[in-house]
Amino acid sequence: MIRKNQATLTSEEKARFVAAMLELKRTGRYDEFVVTHQEFAMSDSDVGDRLAHRAPSFLPWHRRFLLDFERALQEVDPAVTLPYWDWTDDRSTRSSLWAPDFLGGTGRTSDGKVMTGPFAGDTGKWKIIARTDSRSYLCRTLAVHEPALPTAEDVLKVLAEPRYDVRPWNSSSSSGLRNLLEGWRGPNLHNRVHVWVGGHMATGASPNDPVFWLHHCFIDLLWAQWQAEHGASYEPKRREPGVVGAADAMKPWGDVTPQDMLDHRAFYTYDVDE
Amino acid sequence: MQGEMTRRSLIGHVLGGLVGTVGVVGLGVNQLGARAATGGEPFFAERYQGRWITGGGPQAQVELDRRDRGVHGHHGQPVVTVDGVPLHVMRGADGRYVTSVNHYQSFPTLKAAARAAAESLRGAALEVAA
Ligand SMILES: [Cu+2]
Protein backbone atom coordinates (compact mmCIF):
# COMPACT_ATOMS: atom_id res chain seq x y z
CA MET A 1 0.00 0.00 0.00
CA ILE A 2 1.59 3.25 -1.16
CA ARG A 3 0.61 6.76 -0.18
CA LYS A 4 1.27 9.23 -2.98
CA ASN A 5 1.76 12.93 -3.44
CA GLN A 6 -1.66 14.32 -4.44
CA ALA A 7 -0.01 16.26 -7.28
CA THR A 8 0.82 12.97 -8.99
CA LEU A 9 -2.65 11.38 -8.82
CA THR A 10 -4.38 10.50 -12.08
CA SER A 11 -7.88 11.85 -12.61
CA GLU A 12 -9.20 8.34 -11.99
CA GLU A 13 -7.37 8.13 -8.64
CA LYS A 14 -8.77 11.51 -7.64
CA ALA A 15 -12.29 10.49 -8.64
CA ARG A 16 -12.10 7.27 -6.61
CA PHE A 17 -10.74 9.07 -3.55
CA VAL A 18 -13.56 11.62 -3.78
CA ALA A 19 -16.18 8.92 -4.28
CA ALA A 20 -14.99 6.98 -1.22
CA MET A 21 -15.05 10.18 0.88
CA LEU A 22 -18.62 10.93 -0.22
CA GLU A 23 -19.68 7.39 0.59
CA LEU A 24 -18.27 7.60 4.14
CA LYS A 25 -20.09 10.89 4.53
CA ARG A 26 -23.34 9.39 3.31
CA THR A 27 -23.23 6.51 5.78
CA GLY A 28 -22.32 8.72 8.75
CA ARG A 29 -18.91 7.07 9.26
CA TYR A 30 -17.14 10.26 8.26
CA ASP A 31 -18.70 12.34 11.01
CA GLU A 32 -17.63 9.86 13.67
CA PHE A 33 -14.05 10.82 12.82
CA VAL A 34 -14.87 14.53 13.01
CA VAL A 35 -16.53 14.09 16.41
CA THR A 36 -13.57 12.13 17.80
CA HIS A 37 -11.13 14.81 16.70
CA GLN A 38 -13.31 17.58 18.09
CA GLU A 39 -13.63 15.89 21.48
CA PHE A 40 -9.87 15.58 21.84
CA ALA A 41 -9.35 19.11 20.57
CA MET A 42 -11.62 20.43 23.32
CA SER A 43 -10.00 18.49 26.14
CA ASP A 44 -6.29 18.48 25.20
CA SER A 45 -4.83 20.97 27.65
CA ASP A 46 -1.30 22.12 28.45
CA VAL A 47 -1.92 21.62 32.14
CA GLY A 48 -4.18 18.54 32.04
CA ASP A 49 -4.41 15.26 30.16
CA ARG A 50 -3.48 15.70 26.53
CA LEU A 51 -3.13 13.21 23.72
CA ALA A 52 -3.98 14.46 20.25
CA HIS A 53 -2.53 17.97 20.49
CA ARG A 54 0.06 19.85 22.57
CA ALA A 55 1.58 16.54 23.58
CA PRO A 56 4.30 14.08 22.57
CA SER A 57 1.56 11.73 21.33
CA PHE A 58 0.40 14.31 18.75
CA LEU A 59 2.26 12.36 16.03
CA PRO A 60 1.43 8.72 16.96
CA TRP A 61 -2.18 9.68 17.82
CA HIS A 62 -2.72 11.22 14.39
CA ARG A 63 -0.84 8.38 12.65
CA ARG A 64 -3.36 5.92 14.07
CA PHE A 65 -6.29 8.29 13.45
CA LEU A 66 -5.33 8.53 9.77
CA LEU A 67 -4.80 4.80 9.54
CA ASP A 68 -8.31 4.15 10.88
CA PHE A 69 -9.71 6.61 8.37
CA GLU A 70 -7.77 5.12 5.49
CA ARG A 71 -9.05 1.66 6.41
CA ALA A 72 -12.60 3.03 6.39
CA LEU A 73 -11.97 4.44 2.90
CA GLN A 74 -10.63 1.06 1.80
CA GLU A 75 -13.76 -0.70 2.99
CA VAL A 76 -15.50 1.39 0.33
CA ASP A 77 -12.76 1.08 -2.30
CA PRO A 78 -9.73 -1.12 -1.58
CA ALA A 79 -7.64 0.76 -4.16
CA VAL A 80 -7.79 4.07 -2.32
CA THR A 81 -4.92 5.30 -0.13
CA LEU A 82 -4.50 8.65 1.57
CA PRO A 83 -2.69 11.17 -0.64
CA TYR A 84 -0.48 13.80 0.92
CA TRP A 85 -0.31 17.53 0.23
CA ASP A 86 3.24 18.83 0.11
CA TRP A 87 2.47 22.46 0.87
CA THR A 88 6.13 23.44 0.49
CA ASP A 89 5.60 22.69 -3.21
CA ASP A 90 1.88 23.22 -3.91
CA ARG A 91 1.62 26.63 -2.29
CA SER A 92 -0.89 28.43 -4.47
CA THR A 93 -4.63 28.87 -4.11
CA ARG A 94 -4.69 27.93 -7.82
CA SER A 95 -3.06 24.55 -7.26
CA SER A 96 -4.80 21.56 -8.88
CA LEU A 97 -5.52 20.43 -5.30
CA TRP A 98 -8.25 23.10 -5.17
CA ALA A 99 -9.66 22.37 -8.63
CA PRO A 100 -13.34 21.40 -9.12
CA ASP A 101 -12.35 17.78 -9.92
CA PHE A 102 -10.66 17.33 -6.55
CA LEU A 103 -11.20 19.30 -3.32
CA GLY A 104 -12.83 22.42 -4.78
CA GLY A 105 -11.64 25.96 -4.13
CA THR A 106 -11.73 28.65 -1.50
CA GLY A 107 -14.98 29.99 -0.03
CA ARG A 108 -16.87 33.08 -1.08
CA THR A 109 -15.98 36.30 0.74
CA SER A 110 -19.23 36.91 2.58
CA ASP A 111 -19.43 33.74 4.68
CA GLY A 112 -16.61 31.45 3.58
CA LYS A 113 -18.90 28.99 1.82
CA VAL A 114 -17.09 26.71 -0.65
CA MET A 115 -18.88 26.99 -4.00
CA THR A 116 -16.94 24.61 -6.25
CA GLY A 117 -16.03 20.93 -6.33
CA PRO A 118 -17.57 17.76 -4.89
CA PHE A 119 -17.61 19.01 -1.27
CA ALA A 120 -19.42 22.29 -1.92
CA GLY A 121 -22.52 22.73 0.23
CA ASP A 122 -24.82 23.15 -2.73
CA THR A 123 -24.15 19.59 -3.91
CA GLY A 124 -26.19 18.45 -0.90
CA LYS A 125 -23.63 15.70 -0.29
CA TRP A 126 -21.37 17.31 2.27
CA LYS A 127 -23.40 18.62 5.17
CA ILE A 128 -21.37 19.80 8.15
CA ILE A 129 -22.74 18.07 11.25
CA ALA A 130 -20.08 18.25 14.00
CA ARG A 131 -19.26 21.94 14.10
CA THR A 132 -18.56 24.99 16.22
CA ASP A 133 -20.97 27.38 14.51
CA SER A 134 -24.24 27.49 12.63
CA ARG A 135 -22.80 27.03 9.13
CA SER A 136 -23.84 23.64 7.76
CA TYR A 137 -21.73 23.92 4.60
CA LEU A 138 -17.96 23.57 4.16
CA CYS A 139 -16.04 26.84 4.63
CA ARG A 140 -12.57 27.92 3.53
CA THR A 141 -10.67 31.19 3.48
CA LEU A 142 -7.48 30.22 1.66
CA ALA A 143 -4.53 32.55 2.37
CA VAL A 144 -6.73 35.11 4.16
CA HIS A 145 -5.78 34.75 7.82
CA GLU A 146 -2.28 33.52 7.03
CA PRO A 147 -0.60 34.86 3.90
CA ALA A 148 1.96 32.12 3.20
CA LEU A 149 2.38 28.39 3.69
CA PRO A 150 5.56 27.12 5.36
CA THR A 151 8.56 26.77 3.05
CA ALA A 152 10.95 23.88 2.40
CA GLU A 153 13.52 25.86 4.37
CA ASP A 154 11.15 26.00 7.37
CA VAL A 155 10.73 22.24 7.13
CA LEU A 156 14.49 21.60 7.00
CA LYS A 157 14.98 23.72 10.10
CA VAL A 158 12.42 21.66 12.02
CA LEU A 159 13.68 18.29 10.76
CA ALA A 160 17.13 19.19 12.11
CA GLU A 161 15.85 19.02 15.70
CA PRO A 162 17.84 16.31 17.46
CA ARG A 163 15.28 15.46 20.18
CA TYR A 164 11.80 14.04 19.61
CA ASP A 165 10.24 16.12 22.38
CA VAL A 166 11.27 17.87 25.59
CA ARG A 167 9.74 18.86 28.91
CA PRO A 168 7.24 20.18 29.77
CA TRP A 169 5.81 18.10 26.90
CA ASN A 170 3.23 20.68 25.85
CA SER A 171 2.82 23.72 23.59
CA SER A 172 5.56 25.54 25.48
CA SER A 173 8.28 22.94 24.84
CA SER A 174 11.03 25.16 23.46
CA SER A 175 12.63 22.55 21.22
CA GLY A 176 12.08 19.05 19.91
CA LEU A 177 10.61 17.80 16.64
CA ARG A 178 7.07 17.38 17.95
CA ASN A 179 6.35 20.91 19.16
CA LEU A 180 8.14 22.55 16.24
CA LEU A 181 6.32 20.33 13.75
CA GLU A 182 3.01 20.94 15.52
CA GLY A 183 3.86 24.62 15.26
CA TRP A 184 3.57 26.20 18.70
CA ARG A 185 7.27 27.07 18.51
CA GLY A 186 9.72 27.68 15.67
CA PRO A 187 8.71 28.51 12.10
CA ASN A 188 5.19 27.09 12.65
CA LEU A 189 4.43 24.21 10.31
CA HIS A 190 1.26 22.19 11.07
CA ASN A 191 -0.72 24.93 12.83
CA ARG A 192 0.04 27.49 10.17
CA VAL A 193 -1.40 25.30 7.41
CA HIS A 194 -4.68 24.90 9.34
CA VAL A 195 -4.91 28.71 9.60
CA TRP A 196 -3.91 29.26 5.97
CA VAL A 197 -6.80 27.05 4.80
CA GLY A 198 -9.14 28.71 7.31
CA GLY A 199 -12.86 28.02 7.63
CA HIS A 200 -13.45 24.61 9.20
CA MET A 201 -9.75 23.74 9.03
CA ALA A 202 -9.06 26.45 11.60
CA THR A 203 -11.48 24.95 14.14
CA GLY A 204 -11.36 21.98 16.49
CA ALA A 205 -13.65 20.24 13.98
CA SER A 206 -11.00 20.53 11.25
CA PRO A 207 -11.55 17.05 9.70
CA ASN A 208 -14.78 18.47 8.24
CA ASP A 209 -12.53 19.69 5.43
CA PRO A 210 -11.23 16.76 3.35
CA VAL A 211 -7.89 18.54 3.07
CA PHE A 212 -7.34 17.73 6.76
CA TRP A 213 -6.35 14.17 5.75
CA LEU A 214 -3.95 15.31 3.03
CA HIS A 215 -2.34 17.84 5.35
CA HIS A 216 -1.91 15.40 8.22
CA CYS A 217 -0.64 12.75 5.82
CA PHE A 218 2.20 15.14 4.95
CA ILE A 219 2.86 15.82 8.65
CA ASP A 220 3.04 12.05 9.10
CA LEU A 221 5.49 11.80 6.20
CA LEU A 222 7.68 14.53 7.72
CA TRP A 223 7.74 12.57 10.97
CA ALA A 224 8.85 9.47 9.02
CA GLN A 225 11.60 11.49 7.36
CA TRP A 226 12.80 12.77 10.71
CA GLN A 227 12.83 9.19 12.02
CA ALA A 228 14.90 8.03 9.04
CA GLU A 229 17.55 10.55 10.06
CA HIS A 230 17.33 10.56 13.86
CA GLY A 231 15.94 7.14 14.74
CA ALA A 232 12.45 6.02 15.70
CA SER A 233 12.54 7.34 19.24
CA TYR A 234 9.64 8.55 21.34
CA GLU A 235 9.83 10.66 24.47
CA PRO A 236 8.98 10.49 27.29
CA LYS A 237 9.85 6.84 27.73
CA ARG A 238 7.59 6.59 30.76
CA ARG A 239 4.37 8.34 31.67
CA GLU A 240 4.70 11.88 33.02
CA PRO A 241 1.95 14.17 34.33
CA GLY A 242 -0.67 14.67 31.62
CA VAL A 243 1.14 12.72 28.88
CA VAL A 244 1.61 9.07 27.91
CA GLY A 245 4.93 7.24 27.76
CA ALA A 246 6.07 5.07 24.85
CA ALA A 247 4.29 1.92 26.08
CA ASP A 248 1.11 3.48 27.50
CA ALA A 249 -2.25 2.98 25.81
CA MET A 250 -3.76 5.99 24.05
CA LYS A 251 -7.42 6.92 24.08
CA PRO A 252 -9.78 6.45 22.35
CA TRP A 253 -8.35 3.07 21.31
CA GLY A 254 -7.21 1.76 24.64
CA ASP A 255 -4.86 -0.82 23.11
CA VAL A 256 -2.66 1.37 20.92
CA THR A 257 0.61 2.78 22.26
CA PRO A 258 2.95 5.40 20.75
CA GLN A 259 5.51 2.61 20.37
CA ASP A 260 3.08 0.63 18.18
CA MET A 261 2.96 3.57 15.78
CA LEU A 262 6.68 4.24 15.42
CA ASP A 263 7.26 2.34 12.17
CA HIS A 264 4.84 3.43 9.46
CA ARG A 265 6.20 0.74 7.09
CA ALA A 266 4.33 -1.84 9.13
CA PHE A 267 1.16 -0.30 7.65
CA TYR A 268 2.00 1.61 4.44
CA THR A 269 4.86 3.25 2.59
CA TYR A 270 5.31 6.68 1.03
CA ASP A 271 6.17 7.16 -2.60
CA VAL A 272 9.34 8.93 -1.43
CA ASP A 273 10.45 6.24 1.03
CA GLU A 274 13.84 4.72 0.36
CA MET B 1 -19.72 52.24 19.44
CA GLN B 2 -16.26 51.00 20.35
CA GLY B 3 -14.89 53.28 23.03
CA GLU B 4 -17.70 55.75 22.55
CA MET B 5 -20.15 54.15 24.92
CA THR B 6 -21.18 55.64 28.17
CA ARG B 7 -20.75 53.37 31.15
CA ARG B 8 -24.50 53.15 31.59
CA SER B 9 -25.16 51.96 28.06
CA LEU B 10 -22.23 49.57 28.28
CA ILE B 11 -23.75 47.90 31.32
CA GLY B 12 -27.06 47.76 29.49
CA HIS B 13 -25.44 45.91 26.64
CA VAL B 14 -23.60 43.54 28.95
CA LEU B 15 -26.87 42.56 30.54
CA GLY B 16 -28.57 42.42 27.15
CA GLY B 17 -25.94 40.00 25.93
CA LEU B 18 -25.98 37.80 28.98
CA VAL B 19 -29.63 37.60 29.92
CA GLY B 20 -31.48 34.86 28.13
CA THR B 21 -28.60 32.74 26.93
CA VAL B 22 -26.54 32.70 30.08
CA GLY B 23 -29.24 33.61 32.51
CA VAL B 24 -27.26 36.18 34.42
CA VAL B 25 -29.54 38.58 36.19
CA GLY B 26 -29.07 41.17 38.82
CA LEU B 27 -25.49 42.07 37.97
CA GLY B 28 -25.00 45.64 39.04
CA VAL B 29 -22.40 48.22 38.27
CA ASN B 30 -20.55 47.38 41.46
CA GLN B 31 -20.33 43.69 40.66
CA LEU B 32 -18.99 44.35 37.19
CA GLY B 33 -16.45 46.71 38.66
CA ALA B 34 -15.50 44.13 41.25
CA ARG B 35 -15.10 41.52 38.55
CA ALA B 36 -12.65 43.67 36.69
CA ALA B 37 -10.69 44.27 39.86
CA THR B 38 -10.44 40.72 41.17
CA GLY B 39 -7.59 39.17 39.26
CA GLY B 40 -7.28 37.56 35.86
CA GLU B 41 -8.06 39.56 32.81
CA PRO B 42 -10.40 42.52 33.24
CA PHE B 43 -13.97 41.96 32.13
CA PHE B 44 -14.64 43.44 28.71
CA ALA B 45 -17.71 43.91 26.57
CA GLU B 46 -17.79 45.55 23.19
CA ARG B 47 -19.40 45.49 19.80
CA TYR B 48 -16.93 44.18 17.26
CA GLN B 49 -17.70 43.67 13.56
CA GLY B 50 -21.38 43.68 14.38
CA ARG B 51 -21.04 41.08 17.16
CA TRP B 52 -21.44 41.55 20.88
CA ILE B 53 -18.36 40.06 22.53
CA THR B 54 -17.72 39.77 26.26
CA GLY B 55 -15.16 38.04 28.37
CA GLY B 56 -12.80 38.06 31.27
CA GLY B 57 -11.29 35.70 33.64
CA PRO B 58 -10.83 33.60 35.42
CA GLN B 59 -12.79 35.61 37.98
CA ALA B 60 -15.46 36.38 35.37
CA GLN B 61 -16.20 32.67 35.12
CA VAL B 62 -16.58 32.38 38.85
CA GLU B 63 -19.09 35.22 38.72
CA LEU B 64 -20.96 33.53 35.89
CA ASP B 65 -20.94 30.13 37.60
CA ARG B 66 -22.43 31.63 40.71
CA ARG B 67 -25.48 32.54 38.65
CA ASP B 68 -25.15 29.61 36.33
CA ARG B 69 -28.16 28.55 34.37
CA GLY B 70 -26.52 27.70 31.10
CA VAL B 71 -22.77 28.12 31.04
CA HIS B 72 -20.97 24.94 31.96
CA GLY B 73 -17.48 26.30 32.18
CA HIS B 74 -14.76 24.94 34.39
CA HIS B 75 -14.17 26.79 37.59
CA GLY B 76 -11.14 28.97 37.40
CA GLN B 77 -11.30 29.08 33.60
CA PRO B 78 -11.59 32.26 31.58
CA VAL B 79 -14.82 32.92 29.75
CA VAL B 80 -15.71 34.52 26.42
CA THR B 81 -19.10 34.92 24.79
CA VAL B 82 -20.14 35.98 21.29
CA ASP B 83 -23.69 37.34 21.13
CA GLY B 84 -24.26 35.71 24.51
CA VAL B 85 -23.17 32.20 23.48
CA PRO B 86 -20.14 30.86 25.35
CA LEU B 87 -17.04 30.18 23.26
CA HIS B 88 -14.83 27.27 24.33
CA VAL B 89 -11.58 28.89 25.46
CA MET B 90 -8.43 27.41 26.93
CA ARG B 91 -5.41 29.01 28.54
CA GLY B 92 -2.07 27.71 27.32
CA ALA B 93 1.05 27.17 29.40
CA ASP B 94 2.43 30.46 28.09
CA GLY B 95 -0.67 32.34 29.26
CA ARG B 96 -2.04 32.76 25.75
CA TYR B 97 -5.54 31.66 24.74
CA VAL B 98 -6.87 29.18 22.20
CA THR B 99 -10.55 28.79 21.28
CA SER B 100 -12.53 26.09 19.50
CA VAL B 101 -13.08 28.49 16.59
CA ASN B 102 -9.37 29.26 16.16
CA HIS B 103 -7.91 26.05 17.46
CA TYR B 104 -4.48 26.30 15.83
CA GLN B 105 -3.64 29.84 16.89
CA SER B 106 -3.13 31.46 20.26
CA PHE B 107 -3.95 34.98 21.31
CA PRO B 108 -2.35 37.23 23.93
CA THR B 109 -5.64 38.31 25.50
CA LEU B 110 -9.21 37.06 25.79
CA LYS B 111 -10.35 40.11 23.92
CA ALA B 112 -8.02 39.30 21.01
CA ALA B 113 -9.35 35.71 21.03
CA ALA B 114 -12.96 36.95 21.03
CA ARG B 115 -12.29 39.38 18.19
CA ALA B 116 -10.62 36.66 16.11
CA ALA B 117 -13.62 34.41 16.69
CA ALA B 118 -15.99 37.19 15.59
CA GLU B 119 -13.94 37.59 12.40
CA SER B 120 -13.81 33.86 11.68
CA LEU B 121 -17.54 33.43 12.24
CA ARG B 122 -18.38 35.86 9.41
CA GLY B 123 -21.82 36.41 10.78
CA ALA B 124 -22.55 32.79 11.75
CA ALA B 125 -23.82 32.01 15.25
CA LEU B 126 -21.67 30.07 17.69
CA GLU B 127 -23.04 26.70 18.70
CA VAL B 128 -22.61 25.48 22.24
CA ALA B 129 -20.60 22.28 22.24
CA ALA B 130 -22.52 19.26 23.48
CU1 LIG C 1 -3.91 19.23 12.31
TrEMBL record, chain A:
Arranged from A to Z, the UniProt key words for this protein are:
Copper, Metal-binding
Coiled-coil parts of chain? none
Superkingdom field: Bacteria
* Keyword Plastid belongs to the record: no
Name the Gene Ontology molecular function terms of this record: metal ion binding; oxidoreductase activity
Q: Which cofactor does it need?
A: Cu(2+)
Which residues are in the Tyrosinase copper-binding domain?
A: 53-70, 209-220
Which family, according to the similarity comment? Answer: Belongs to the tyrosinase family.
This chain's protein is named Tyrosinase
Q: Which organism is it from?
A: Lentzea aerocolonigenes (Lechevalieria aerocolonigenes)
Lineage, opening ranks: Bacteria, Bacillati, Actinomycetota, Actinomycetes, Pseudonocardiales
